[in-house]
């Protein structure tokens, strides 16, 4: 006779999702240089001189979203799909806004020169784009999590 272990609906898959989300967050922290290289590749198509510091990556903005999603999935396994969809759209918003920030920086440096272009592109507009993109991603994430699905 074989013993069959039953688990509450969705518990086992949701635990795996939680572990994967936490592992992805840890992976982004540990491999942030690799991620930064991938992140700056589109700007490399425009110019050959794209060198950003380690702190100029959206990886550190994605980590809290991954961890928040893992907590939501752990607390409400039945909402796993909804949480992952929200994470996907919010992550996409962060990545797109970061690409806009990087390409704006590259364009302004090319147009205004290194000193002025870097100041305007990184300090002024880059910060504004990052803040707006982060806020938009959080609002989108929250809205997707709390909205009711149509019957």
UniProtKB/TrEMBL annotation:
Keywords: Cell membrane, Hydrolase, Membrane, Protease, Transmembrane, Transmembrane helix. It is found in: Cell membrane. One of its GO terms (cellular component) is plasma membrane. Its main location: membrane. GO terms for biological process: proteolysis. The chain crosses the membrane at residues 16-38, 58-75, 87-112, 124-146. It is a multi-pass membrane protein. InterPro entries: Exo/Archaeosortase_dom. GO terms for molecular function: peptidase activity. NCBIfam families: exo_archaeo. This is Exosortase/archaeosortase family protein. It comes from Kutzneria kofuensis.
